[in-house]
Write a structure and sequence with these properties.
The protein has 437 residues and is an alpha/beta fold. The protein folds into three domains: 3-63, Transferase, Pyrimidine Nucleoside Phosphorylase, Chain A, domain 3; 81-330, Nucleoside phosphorylase/phosphoribosyltransferase catalytic domain (Pyrimidine Nucleoside Phosphorylase, Chain A, domain 2, 3-Layer(aba) Sandwich), CATH 3.40.1030; 334-421, Pyrimidine nucleoside phosphorylase-like, C-terminal domain (Aldehyde Oxidoreductase, domain 3, Alpha-Beta Complex). Helix content is 46%, strand content 14%. It is built from 17 helices and twelve strands. The radius of gyration is 21 Å and the shape is globular. It starts with a helix and ends with a strand.
Length: 437
């Protein structure tokens, strides 16, 4: 079977057979397919989509392309569950959610990705913690999950290797927003992680891959249905991504905000709402709680009591990071040499959040090409929310850059990405629908 025939078949809108899908996955996993052919098929899928059966077969084949974890022999005294976000700007939820859920009795083996397009990557962010090994062997990963209750790692070469390669190629070929490819990418990793439950954070808005509610719902239903076929119980929350989530964008800056949240010192309202809602849904999915309000109270108590911060500290230390990171994060995180405010006047009326994500790439905090190294210190902090009135005193944000020239460009990019008006816009809920099947 020639792979060019597979490309032509999907290019012309036909459905791929089981053997053709397996050929694609095998070629991804063993690197026998050249990037040009992978890119061509990815674009054909992006343009012509896939049927539900095709997407399901692709997902399961990618999950089976490497090691599939089994937690049943670990003697865990709680359920194994994870959360996954479809990608946003300033989305550092994982760093609070994993230790909160662990503090509530869950075990969270979180296998995350790097930056994808304009969105930041959880793996890139966690690597801004000095010494943190985001690609441990499975023995170390298992031990940390068992002892600390959670571990946040990047995708290893053994786990869903077919997805690992396809993910990096999609990032730089304009094929990110395909519903079947997103579904297969997310679920192949989660199925391979041996989960008992999954909660999806499906973003919608200007900073999301799904810019309309209809597309977000389509993706959520695709993931829930495909996961069910693999026996993985999944719920999905549709959440707003029409502005930066929290007050920071950039790798080390987002880690700092996450630590301040876990220390119960700074909890941005929208970030808090998303984090606690997702955490509560995790407890509902695995049956620790049946009432969402009670589940939310339990999650909030994990933060205010300090238990979640303790879990995060244990995880960081177990993964090779500083033992005092939660207490002394400031001495460990990198700092940019140029830090200055960006000012504007009027009410912040709207944000082109995708453009803000792209501004981080231009600063060096995201990738233009596969494998490009990042400047983990750069980004924006103190980003105000939509509806804030700027009077010349409070800045729109503070830019962190490697040079004055980079800071100038970032300032212009941020100002161009924001709209200002004479009156505050209407409030917009951050949590939309909750889909359960």
């Amino acid at each position: 079977m020639l792979f060019t025939d597979v490309i032509r078949k999907k290019r012309d809108g036909s459905e791929l057979s089981d053997d053709e899908i397996q050929l694609f996955v095998d070629g991804l996993a063993d690197n026998s397919l050249p990037a040009e052919q992978v890119s061509a098929l990815a674009m054909a899928i992006y343009l012509n989509s896939m049927s539900f059966d095709e997407a399901s077969k692709l997902t399961l084949a990618m999950a089976a392309s490497g090691t599939v974890l089994d937690w049943s022999k670990e003697g865990l005294d709680g359920p194994v569950i994870d959360k996954h976000s479809t990608g946003g700007v300033g989305d550092k939820v994982s760093f609070m959610l994993a230790p909160i859920a662990a503090a509530c009795g869950c075990y969270v083996p979180m296998i995350s990705g790097r930056g994808l397009g304009h969105t930041g990557g959880t793996t890139d962010k966690v690597e801004s913690i000095p010494g943190y090994n985001a690609t441990p062997d499975f023995e170390g990963f298992r031990k940390t999950v068992k002892d600390a209750g959670c571990a946040i790692i990047g995708q290893t070469t053994d786990l869903a290797p077919a997805d690992r390669r396809l993910y990096s190629i999609r990032d730089v070929t304009g094929t990110i927003g395909s519903v079947p490819l997103i579904t297969a990418s997310i679920l192949s990793k989660k199925i391979a992680a041996g989960l008992q439950g999954l909660v999806m954070d499906v973003k919608v808005g200007s900073g999301a891959f799904m810019e309309t509610s209809q597309r977000a719902q389509k993706l959520a239903r695709s993931i829930i249905s495909t996961a069910a076929k693999a026996g993985l119980k999944t719920h999905a929350l549709i959440t707003d991504m029409n502005e930066v989530l929290g007050t920071t964008v950039g790798n080390a800056l987002e880690i700092e905000e996450a630590v301040l949240y876990l220390r119960n010192e700074q909890r941005d309202a929208r970030l808090d709402e998303v984090t606690l809602s997702l955490c509560a849904e995790m407890l509902v999915v695995v049956g620790i709680e049946t009432d969402r309000a009670k589940a939310r109270e339990k999650c909030d108590d994990a933060v205010t009591s300090g238990r979640a911060a303790e879990v995060f500290g244990r995880m960081v230390s177990a993964m090779g990071g500083p033992g005092d990171f939660v207490e002394n994060y400031g001495k460990h995180l990198v700092n940019a040499p140029v830090v200055r405010p960006i000012r504007a006047s009027g009410y912040v009326a709207a944000m082109d959040t995708r453009a803000i994500g792209n501004a981080i790439i231009e600063l060096g905090g995201g990738r233009h090409t596969v494998g490009e190294s990042l400047d983990l210190a750069v980004g924006f902090s103190h980003v105000v929310s939509i509806g804030t009135h700027l009077d010349g005193e409070t800045p729109l944000a503070i830019v962190h850059a490697a040079s004055d020239e980079d800071a100038d460009a970032a300032e212009q990019n941020l100002l161009a990405a924001c709209e200002f008006g004479d009156s505050a816009p209407e409030d917009r809920p951050v949590i939309g629908e909750i889909l359960t099947g």
